Amino acid sequence: MDLYENIPHGDMPGDKICIGEDHVKKAKLILPKLKEEVEKLNAAGQKKVVVCVCGGSGVGKSEIASLLSYMMSEDGKKSYVMSGDNYPHRIPSENDAMREKTYEEGGEEALKAYLGSQQEIDFEKVDVILKSFKEGAETISLKRMGRTPDELWYDDVDFSDTEILFIEWTHGNSDLLSQVDIPVLLNSTPEETLAHRKARNRDGAVDSPFVMMVLRLEQEMLKAQAHKAKIIVSKSGELMSYDDFKKVMDM
Q1: Which residue, among 215, 207, 221, 217, has the nearest Cα to 110 in the 3D structure?
Q2: Is the pTM of this model over 0.70?
């Protein structure tokens, strides 16, 4: 485990990752299939590949994307991890307030329309970044968003010899992105997500009904997008076909 303790991770300011044995197991499970998918694209003439690692709350997106990036780099495919959470239009507290306002004014349907939409997230900017990377841009300016208005800046990142760009993000498999080549879905049933959040909350408090509704709506989005995933992994750490996924998720 010490081998992976200080590896590079996503570029979200203040983001802390804690890699455990479960994350390593899943990354090693995904790796051969991911290499196979990358090799197919390389053989077809595509030199730069975009991989998204997506999933709901608590499935280990940051940790597993970091591990896969490190493992691919160690195998000779230099990689970078980009965090999609840098690209909402508003800082987290303001976005949370907008979600609540949207719900108060229009109910659950209005909130559903807002979550994961262009109104909430700058998908256009993300798509431009991914397209620039695939077209061989040597340097790309990437956004950094912290938790306060003054924690917002851009860093120029050298991509000249980077072959794989990982984006770790709940919304990485969204229909509003056109440049993702290999979506990797880390699945979790609603029951598994709830159990994880309860276990993670050290003071024993449960999530508010509003937070639970947001998680449920995000889960519905992930289910609707899952058919595009090239690789699906269960919470227990097994590769799944889309048919397996549909059975587990009662689709």
Answers
A1: 217
A2: yes
